[in-house]
Design brief:
The complex is a heterodimer of chains A (about 250) and B (about 450). Chain A has about 250 residues and is α/β, with parallel strands linked by helices. Chain A folds into two domains: about 120 residues, 3-Layer(aba) Sandwich (Rossmann fold), CATH 3.40.50.2300; about 100 residues, Winged helix-like DNA-binding domain superfamily/Winged helix DNA-binding domain (Arc Repressor Mutant, subunit A), CATH 1.10.10.10. Chain A is built from eight helices and 13 strands. In chain A, strands 2-1-3-4-5 form a five-stranded parallel β-sheet, with helices on both faces. A five-stranded antiparallel β-sheet of chain A has the order 9-8-7-6-13, with no helix packed on it. Chain A is elongated, with a radius of gyration of 19 Å. Chain B is of the alpha+beta class and about 450 residues long. In chain B, about 55% of the residues lie in helices and about 15% in strands. Chain B has eleven helices and eleven strands. Classes of the chains: A alpha/beta (about 250), B alpha+beta (about 450). Chains A and B meet through helix 1, strand 9 and helix 6 of A and helix 7, helix 8, strand 5, helix 9 and helix 10 of B.
């Protein structure tokens, strides 16, 4: 609210946090990086701002006095599809599940790297723009079934047909997630890099080909002719199997 | 003595039972032998009295001329008869077993005197002694037949004796002892079984704080009471640990807000070098808090166990480490799933590998399956740690100064967390110095995988 400049080209971020210092410091940082920010100290202020301002994305603190972030997110989802990034101080998987169910688009754990938050804001906005036709964006998947496998999104591991847990490295999980989000679509190496970047700041400096070959080894065994992730010559890769999403 | 045969409660109970049975058995046997001796004496006394009474009645029934012939026959069976002796009473004798028996066989109005004789004044003794051993009893009976003939009868009989030990008796004793020993062993085993169960439960509880409580509806009342007491102790220890864990989590949690502010404020620092070093300090602090949270999390035991493919887990961890630019190599497989919590086990193995990379430059992971256990060895290229510190490094916040500097960051909780997780999987972690060039420390994680 300290910034009344309106620019259709700039991203408008609403920061909801009860801590004045965090709110203003974050606002300052984001403005320095070319975003327009508004602030709200609690849920009521957030809904007021949503009514009166044009907001592209909400950065919502989980721990708020009165109605907390989870509840606010749930309430927001009944009327709006606006992207939400949740700020949480907890890191255990239980909170991830609860957050996912309430429809937050991403999470950043406090204390966060300011640049990481910035990249997540951009990544979430990009996703919400490119997949606005997907419809299910705010009802995120808990499990994805494909071929003989089940990918557990919360636990970030695979379960095979015998119910045995098969682990994935961070990069393998992110890559598989991208393939499963775009089944039967050819993804070029550049597209894959683009989709992976910003989603997480963990170094991903190995070439896409190496990660794909690791992922293939994991889900296709030692088979010489991959049947799930196929190579399309000169174009990229394609996940060629039916995918069933469990919400 | 401390670890000897007597230190075991089972053997003590066994010895007390067998010893007690032998002593009481011996006492009962001795008493029975004396009782038997008395009884034999009594039977012999009555038998002698009966013999005397019969002789008197026979003498009375036959004519006087036949009496000497009868006397001769009775003499052969040890009863001396003297018709000439008219001495009557030698002294008043108290009623004895012999005299009352004699009175029982004869009619009551007959005048009869009996006298027990001691010493050598026993005519019957002489003849008896020829055949057998010692004669204890010698009775003289004075009476008058119905026709007025005075009569003196002398009869001698042996006292009851304790029979000598026979071979069969020895065999019986041995068989009896064998039966008693078996019984004592069974009793000792049954008696100490609840105690052993309790000890096992305490051991299990030590390894895993969430070990299921003891059944409180089984066994004797004392055992049930002990089980209830043990379970309540387990619950209160668990509560205590949970409280501590919650406190740790709460502190770590509350630190997030000021740290977030601090991190955002650092964006305003224009001196690039200063900002870099401040961010470095903050990162170290955050790492410590995260380890504290992980430590608290490792105490949290409601995470479910699944069958997990350990080989894929290790490969995933190695791939993550490689992606983060660490030098990691890997060999061997387990080849079978293990029952574990994937998240916790990942943290455990990651900590071992992180430690190896932090202090030993690289990590080489060797995996094998042996004796129903998955064995994961993480080998590093450092200088190892002093032998007397191999166990100490598992203590929370313990770090070895000099060789492992605080500069490297972390709280020293990594190995503690790893060991807690291993314990929750009924496994173990051991450290060993290799003392070889380019090979420093080996951390070996063993997890049962039946």
């Amino acid at each position: 609210m300290n910034n009344s400049r309106t620019s259709d080209l700039k991203t408008h971020v609403l920061i909801v946090d009860d801590d004045y210092d965090i709110r203003s410091l974050l606002s300052e940082f984001l403005e320095n990086n070319g975003l327009v920010t508004f602030q709200a100290a609690d849920g009521e202020a957030m809904f007021d701002a949503l009514k009166s301002k044009h907001i592209d994305i909400i950065v919502l603190d989980l721990n708020l006095p009165g109605e907390d972030g989870l509840s606010l997110c749930r309430r927001l989802r009944t009327t709006s599809n606006k992207p939400v990034i949740m700020l949480t101080a907890k890191t255990n998987p239980i909170d991830r599940i609860v957050g996912l169910e309430t429809g937050a688009d991403d999470y950043v754990c406090k204390p966060f790297e300011p640049l990481e938050l910035l990249s997540r804001i951009r990544s979430v906005l990009r996703r919400s723009q490119t997949s606005s036709d997907a419809g299910n964006e705010h009802n995120p998947a808990l499990k994805i079934h494909f071929s003989n496998w089940t990918l557990d999104i919360t636990a970030r591991h695979l379960i095979n047909e015998d119910g045995i847990v098969v682990s994935l490295s961070g990069a393998e999980f992110r890559l598989l997630r991208i393939f499963l989000d775009h089944p039967n679509r050819i993804l070029s190496r550049d597209q894959l890099m683009d989709l992976i970047h910003g989603r997480d700041t963990t170094p991903f400096d190995r070439s896409i080909d190496l990660q794909v070959s690791r992922l293939r080894q994991r889900i296709e065994g030692q088979s010489k002719s991959p049947s799930i992730i196929k190579t399309v010559r000169n174009e990229g890769y394609i996940l060629s199997t039916s995918v069933k999403v469990e919400h | 003595m401390k670890n000897g045969f007597f230190s075991s409660m089972t053997s003590r109970i066994f010895l007390i039972l067998v010893g007690g049975t032998i002593i009481s058995g011996a006492l009962v046997t001795v008493l029975a032998l004396y009782e038997r001796k008395d009884l034999t004496t009594q039977i012999r006394t009555r038998h002698a009295a009966e013999r005397v009474a019969q002789t008197i009645l026979t003498l009375e029934a036959v004519p006087a001329a036949s009496r000497p012939a009868i006397a001769a026959i009775s003499e052969k069976s040890g009863t001396l008869i003297d018709f000439s002796n008219t001495t009557t009473v030698i002294g008043t004798q108290p009623a004895s077993d012999f005299s009352s028996s004699l009175a029982h066989y004869l009619d009551s109005n007959r005048a009869i005197d009996t006298a027990e004789r001691w010493g050598t004044d026993c005519p019957a003794r002489q003849s008896e002694q020829k055949n057998t051993g010692e004669i204890k009893h010698c009775q003289s009976v004075f009476t008058k037949l119905k026709d007025g003939t005075h009569l003196r009868l002398d009869v001698a009989y042996r006292d009851g004796a304790i029979p000598p030990l026979r071979k069969e008796f020895l065999y019986n004793i041995l068989a009896f002892l064998a039966v008693i020993s078996v019984l004592a062993l069974v009793v000792a085993y049954i008696a100490t079984k609840p105690l052993r169960k309790l000890a096992q439960a305490a051991q299990d509880f030590g390894n895993n704080i969430d070990h299921p409580p003891l059944p409180v509806k089984e066994g004797t009342r004392e055992v049930r009471e002990a089980s209830v007491a043990f379970n309540s102790m387990q619950a209160s220890i668990r509560n205590h640990i949970q409280e501590r864990t919650y406190m740790l989590a709460a502190i770590a949690h509350d630190l997030q807000t000021p740290l977030t502010r601090l991190r955002l404020r650092l964006e305003k620092v224009t001196d690039t070098d200063l900002r870099k070093s401040l961010i470095g300090d903050l990162t170290t602090t955050q790492t410590m808090i995260r380890e504290g949270l992980d430590f608290a999390q490792s105490m949290n035991t409601d995470e479910p166990f699944d069958l997990i493919d350990l080989d894929s887990l290790i490969e995933a961890i190695c791939n993550d480490a490689t992606d983060a630019g660490c030098e990691v190599s890997r060999e061997g497989t387990v080849g079978r799933p293990v029952l574990a919590n994937a998240h916790a086990l990942r943290r455990c193995i990651t900590n071992l590998i992180d430690n190896a990379i932090k202090y030993g430059k690289y990590a080489h992971i060797s995996v094998k399956y042996e004796n129903a256990k998955a064995i994961i060895s993480v080998i590093d290229g450092g200088k190892g740690i002093p032998e007397d510190q191999l166990e100490a490094v598992f203590q929370p916040f313990k770090r070895i100064e000099h060789s492992r500097s605080r500069e490297s960051g972390g709280t020293g909780l990594g190995l503690t967390i790893a060991r807690i997780i291993a314990g929750r999987h009924r496994g173990s972690i051991k450290l060993k110095n290799m003392n070889a060039a380019e090979i420093g420390l080996v951390a070996t994680l063993e997890i049962p995988a039946p």
